[in-house]
Amino acid sequence: MSISIVDGIKQRLHRDIVADPVLHGAILNLYLNGEAYPHRVDDYFPVGYVSEAELAARMSRHAQEEDKHIALYSKAISRLEQSVVELPLSCIFNAVIRNHTEASFAIDPADDADTRSLKVAHFMAHAHCLEKRVARSLEYHLEACAHSPCDYPAKAVGAVLADEYEHVRYTGEAVNALLPQRVANQVWAQHRRAEWRGNLDFSASQLRRVLLEHGQGWSASRRGLYRASAWALAGLLKVSP
Ligand SMILES: [Fe+2]
Ligand SMILES: [Fe+2]
User: Fold this and answer.
1) pLDDT, average across residues 155-184
2) Which ligand has the shortest distance to the CA of 133?
3) Domains and CATH numbers, the chain
4) What is the pLDDT of residue 149?
5) Helix (H), strand (E), coil (C) string for the chain
6) Nearest ligand (C-alpha, residue 34)
7) What residues pack around ion ligand 1 (CB closer than 5 A)?
8) Nearest CA-CA partner of 170 in 61, 68, 51
9) pTM of the entire structure?
């Protein structure tokens, strides 16, 4: 499928999402659960193991901004008269990417300085690839929110997106500053592959879930389009390295 066809399908999907407050609330819950994921694990934001004070401070601010995003999504969900729900890990993009990630970034206090730097860099590369994809998804969603009967989600998503661009920028720079270029290239290759596979996996399963739980009101051709898209995503995952 060409980029413009994929673009058109994603644009159509986000417009269909915002047209239905129940589905819109469900999708905002997907974003919210990603923001809350750091609180469900103990190896995100390993600030205590970062020796550069400036980077440690930026990471702490990053964690606080993700918590601010939880509050923004919660308010948007309540404005749609929907409820915030805690989703299973299979519905959280971060966790799905990690199912495809070989590298661990859990730091052991006994790790030497080089190992700590490598693991911090693995976390930053994971965060960078993840946030880049989320930012792209939010761009589609923000465009669709202009057609929503409720104006608060657009305000919330716009504020989140501005922070995510900055997270993408500094995490990318941090990986290249923490590691020699040859090692950084290997780390980037691992996380780009994991995110690519994770995105196919997550998108196929969530599209199927949306069809099953929210697609009854859509036309047969619309359901057929999304069903075919989910099938193509799952097929691509099977043949991806
Ligand atoms: Fe965020
Ligand atoms: Fe972020």
Assistant:
1) 98
2) 2
3) 24-194 (1.20.1260)
4) 85
5) CCHHHHHHHHHHHHHHHHHCHHHHHHHHHHHHHHHHHHHHCCCCCCHHHCCCHHHHHHHHHHHHHHHHHHHHHHHHHHHCCCCCCCCCHHHCHHHHHHHCCCCCCCCCCCCCHHHHHHHHHHHHHHHHHHHHHHHHHHHHHHHHHCCCCCCHHHHHHHHHHHHHHHHHHHHHHHHHHHCCHHHHHHHHHHHHHHHHHHHHHHHHHHHHHHHHHHHHHCCHHHHHHHHHHHHHHHHHHHHCC
6) 1
7) 35, 66, 69
8) 61
9) 0.95
Query: Tokens standing for 192?
Result: 């780009």
For ligand 1, the distance from its centroid to the CA atom of residue 68, given in whole angstroms, is 8
Q: How far apart are CA 204 and CA 225, in angstroms?
A: 13
**Cα–Cα distance for residue pair 193/100, rounded to 1 Å:** 8
111 C-beta neighbours (distance < 10 Å), count: 14
pLDDT tens digits for 141-160? 999 999 888 899 999 999 99
